[in-house]
Amino acid sequence: MEENYKASPLKLYSYWMSSCSFRVRLALNLKGLDYEYIPLVEGQQYTPEFMKLNPISYVPVLVDGELVIADSLAIILYLNEKYPHQHPLLPTDLHKKAINYQAASIVHSSIQPHQNQARYIEKEFGPDQKLPWLRYHIGKGFAALEKLLKDYAGRYATGDEVHLADIFLAPQLYAATKRFNIDMQDQFPLLSRLDEAYSQLPAFQVAIPEKQPDAPSSRTS
Amino acid sequence: MGEPQSNCPLKLYSYWRSSCSCRVRIALNLKGLDYEYIPINVVKGEQFSPEFRKLNPIGYVPALVDGDVVISDSFAILLYLDEKYPQRPLLPTDIRKKAINYQAANIVSSSIQPLQNMTILKYIEEKVSPDEKLPWVQCHIGKGFESLEKLLQDYAGRYATGDDVFLADLFLAPQIFTAKGFNVDMNQFPLLSRLDEAYSQLPAFHDAMPEKQPDAPSSSTS
């Protein structure tokens, strides 16, 4: 929700296609928080100005008044604590909370970092290596998520409310289906069902890459 | 702490050299929690056994069993432990410092550690050559460490985010240990070097280090 610049204390540095930025956009939308969308142009993440905000030069970065935080999980947990009443992003049950952290970490540490390496793999080993690399790492993570969540899923990943696991899953599933054409239905029936459920959520619909101010008007990927 | 006690409700599936397992070992020590140490030899592929896959479908250590509760992934385990056993909190109360702890922990867990794990290194070794493994790892560790130096310079005290040990320290200590094993020149990283020295003085960290674990070889080769 890219609203009035002067009123919003929250600023989000984002890139339309970045699934890490997508997670934070989703969280902000779920909580009904207005924010200023500051798009990063390719290459801009290495400028001194941006590296002051995030020394590892990744999006997303959240600026909340004087406070600057980077890393999607850090940002989302911060938002959840600072704005606890609007749509809590974690269940109160401790075990379910832990499962949310675990599912988020599978995406955050076991899938997305390897997905990020795909460009390097293509450059070093050739374009025909990129898709096997992606399929392997995404497939491994998705297989684990299918097993992990089967005892917990309801309408969403860990029950009938949207929680942290969903915030991490939704963009990852979107990337897998829309960007990398991973076949979901046969191999990953639970994740397919969740993907469909997410697509119905207004908070998700507004957060998708194509709807962002910096998305090209005609998608080429 | 780390003894074979089958009556212990807390069981930790761990590998001596796993930096992710080390994070949890430190936390358990800090909180004074006894646990049964169950070794999983990842070099021999024990993480792929059906029994272990039931505990952690992605097949990584560590995994924690607490009575009926089973959790994997070090970040999830640490936050679970911190809520269930609030003695010796792993996070500061200040929301800003808490966020920096999460950020630093995630630089390690998403931008460094996944790029040095066995699968990746095997891929590099097979596709390029064994000689390429070390430069690859050193590059990614170096990039992550540079950003941690910058991130923490405004927050560090005796430890990463002040004068108490918090979550960031639990991620940093094992990663620095691993970096030294890969011959990363720590002189480039004065703050992290200072933190490493500080951690070495703490029994909770010292006892969690790889060579102190029950499954460490009797003569360490690292």
TrEMBL record, chain A:
<dbReference type="InterPro" id="IPR004045">
    <property type="entry name" value="Glutathione_S-Trfase_N"/>
</dbReference>
<dbReference type="InterPro" id="IPR034330">
    <property type="entry name" value="GST_Zeta_C"/>
</dbReference>
<comment type="similarity">
    <text>Belongs to the GST superfamily. Zeta family.</text>
</comment>
<feature type="domain" description="GST C-terminal">
    <location>
        <begin position="93"/>
        <end position="217"/>
    </location>
</feature>
<dbReference type="InterPro" id="IPR034333">
    <property type="entry name" value="GST_Zeta_N"/>
</dbReference>
<dbReference type="InterPro" id="IPR010987">
    <property type="entry name" value="Glutathione-S-Trfase_C-like"/>
</dbReference>
<dbReference type="Pfam" id="PF02798">
    <property type="entry name" value="GST_N"/>
</dbReference>
<protein>
    <recommendedName>
        <fullName>glutathione transferase</fullName>
        <ecNumber>2.5.1.18</ecNumber>
    </recommendedName>
</protein>
<feature type="domain" description="GST N-terminal">
    <location>
        <begin position="8"/>
        <end position="87"/>
    </location>
</feature>
<dbReference type="InterPro" id="IPR005955">
    <property type="entry name" value="GST_Zeta"/>
</dbReference>
<dbReference type="InterPro" id="IPR040079">
    <property type="entry name" value="Glutathione_S-Trfase"/>
</dbReference>
<dbReference type="InterPro" id="IPR036249">
    <property type="entry name" value="Thioredoxin-like_sf"/>
</dbReference>
<dbReference type="Pfam" id="PF13410">
    <property type="entry name" value="GST_C_2"/>
</dbReference>
<dbReference type="InterPro" id="IPR036282">
    <property type="entry name" value="Glutathione-S-Trfase_C_sf"/>
</dbReference>
From TrEMBL, chain B:
<dbReference type="InterPro" id="IPR005955">
    <property type="entry name" value="GST_Zeta"/>
</dbReference>
<dbReference type="InterPro" id="IPR004045">
    <property type="entry name" value="Glutathione_S-Trfase_N"/>
</dbReference>
<dbReference type="InterPro" id="IPR036249">
    <property type="entry name" value="Thioredoxin-like_sf"/>
</dbReference>
<dbReference type="InterPro" id="IPR034333">
    <property type="entry name" value="GST_Zeta_N"/>
</dbReference>
<dbReference type="InterPro" id="IPR040079">
    <property type="entry name" value="Glutathione_S-Trfase"/>
</dbReference>
<protein>
    <recommendedName>
        <fullName>glutathione transferase</fullName>
        <ecNumber>2.5.1.18</ecNumber>
    </recommendedName>
</protein>
<dbReference type="InterPro" id="IPR036282">
    <property type="entry name" value="Glutathione-S-Trfase_C_sf"/>
</dbReference>
<dbReference type="InterPro" id="IPR034330">
    <property type="entry name" value="GST_Zeta_C"/>
</dbReference>
<dbReference type="InterPro" id="IPR010987">
    <property type="entry name" value="Glutathione-S-Trfase_C-like"/>
</dbReference>
<dbReference type="Pfam" id="PF02798">
    <property type="entry name" value="GST_N"/>
</dbReference>
<comment type="similarity">
    <text>Belongs to the GST superfamily. Zeta family.</text>
</comment>
<feature type="domain" description="GST C-terminal">
    <location>
        <begin position="94"/>
        <end position="218"/>
    </location>
</feature>
<feature type="domain" description="GST N-terminal">
    <location>
        <begin position="8"/>
        <end position="89"/>
    </location>
</feature>
